[in-house]
Amino acid sequence: MSAKQAYEKPPVHLPEVPVEIWYTILRYATATPDSVEHPQLSWDASKSKLKFNSGSVKRYRESLVRSPAISVNMLIELINKVSKRYIVRVCRQWYDIAIPDLYEHVMVLKAHKLQSLLESFSSEAAPVGTGDGSRKLGELVKRIDIHLSGDFPQLGTILLQLCRSTPNLVVLITPPRFGLESLFSDETVIPRLRYLHAMATNSVEGGQAKMPLKFLASHRSLRLYTPPHFENPIQGVPPDIWASIQELIFPSRAFATFPSFVKSFISSKFPAGAFPNLHTVVFLRTESRGILDSFLNAHGRHLRTIHIRANAANPCFSRQLIETLKKCCPFLQEILYSATTRALIVDEGNQADPMPGVITVGFQPIARQLNKSERMVFFDLILQETPKYFPNVRTIRIFSEEIVSHFQRCHTKGFKGFLQSCTSLGILVEDHFREPLNCPRLLTDKPVDVESGPTRV
């Protein structure tokens, strides 16, 4: 054998399996949370803006090309350190299969990259997967995040062109002050758009563009516009104009041009039942009991999930809150709390009757880190109070990626004991991405005595 032949690499031949199976294998190999399934990846829920210096956002940025550096799933943490860029370099066949995964989620941090991105979207891509001919790269994009730190007046024009070049766009995140006015005033329709975020990306909160009803009427797949600032309804508006809205997220701080988002939804502009398919509501700041009660009376009938920010004055398990939820939200199945440790403490005279219909309860400590005593109180109160008020609870979700990583690094023994206690109770513990952190065996033995709500399309 010659020296040249000795160093020649043998040709790569993939097994004859369907392309869909190879694509699934490559998706699992990178272990990146689906950015279309989890659009909340882009912003910090407690402050309604990006924190580029935080570990979770750093992981979010890196996940566009490789798996998380710190994973809440210990198995994934051990075996998945593979970059998507290296995956597609294995061979031409893997490149053809995996190239849609690379362009599915695009993030822009610098203004001068927008024009080159637009040109790339218009270029022809190599045959993808099944070899059905060339496609433009823009057709592969399902999510665009535009995070610019400064003013960029030309964003509106480029944003329009980007949307026209990405017909399969599902998630769009853009600064609140630039671009949306041009998008709203144009006749361009993004047929598959479901999530439109206009969250502030720096400390200066800008004005929020009102979404015209005409835009909403032409985008019947739109489920969420954040913050929820819509054009005032007028006479002659179709009664089902709000039927597509399934989620509402109210920011932690209001914009200067619109002091209260929640109050507008309990006014005559949005009468009771205006949102027939609303199933999720998120309150990122502590609302007064009167405002919360009025909102739930008007729009809580079909809610499945509610996220509440609680404190010592408005505790998680207070009689007033539980009674309001039982009365206004008969089909509620999931309650998420952003709370201080003191908000988990219930006075003896303020205890409520249980809610048997709730099967998932989530907790997010407002504090970024807990010391040993705070951690012990936090875990003890969850184990003590959750089964008492929610006897059919099957899942406890720690829905802060940062706090889960903190527990795993700094409170390893205590967190392991908490997971073991939940396992013995037959309760599944999940992270922010609904990945299991323990393996309970009694989930199927716990009944749920609640009538299922109506299914609406």
Question: Could you name the key traits of this structure?
Answer:
globular; alpha/beta; disordered C terminus; 14 strands; 16 helices
Set down the secondary structure blueprint.
Layout: H1 3-7, H2 19-30, H3 55-62, H4 74-79, H5 84-88, H6 92-103, E1 105-108, H7 113-122, E2 124-125, E3 135-136, E4 143-146, H8 155-165, E5 171-173, H9 180-185, E6 195-197, H10 213-218, E7 224-226, E8 247-250, H11 261-264, E9 280-283, H12 289-299, E10 305-310, H13 319-328, E11 334-339, E12 360-365, H14 372-389, E13 395-398, H15 401-410, H16 412-424, E14 428-430
Parallel strand pairs: 1-4, 4-5, 5-6, 6-7, 8-9, 9-10, 10-11, 11-12, 12-13, 13-14
Antiparallel strand pairs: 2-3
Q: Give the strand line-up of the largest sheet.
A: 8-9-10-11-12-13-14
Number of strands: 14
The profile of the biggest β sheet is: 7 strands, parallel
**Rg, Cα atoms, Å:** 24 Å
Mean pLDDT: 76
Q: Give the DSSP E fraction (strand runs of 2 or more residues).
A: 5-15%
Task: Report the order of strands and helices.
Answer: HHHHHHEHEEEHEHEHEEHEHEHEEHEHHE
Helix share of residues?
25-40%
Using the alpha-carbon principal axes, give the shape. Answer: globular
Number of helices: 16
State the end-to-end CA separation.
68 Å
Structural class: alpha/beta
The low-pLDDT segments are 41-54, 65-82, 126-132, 201-206, 447-457
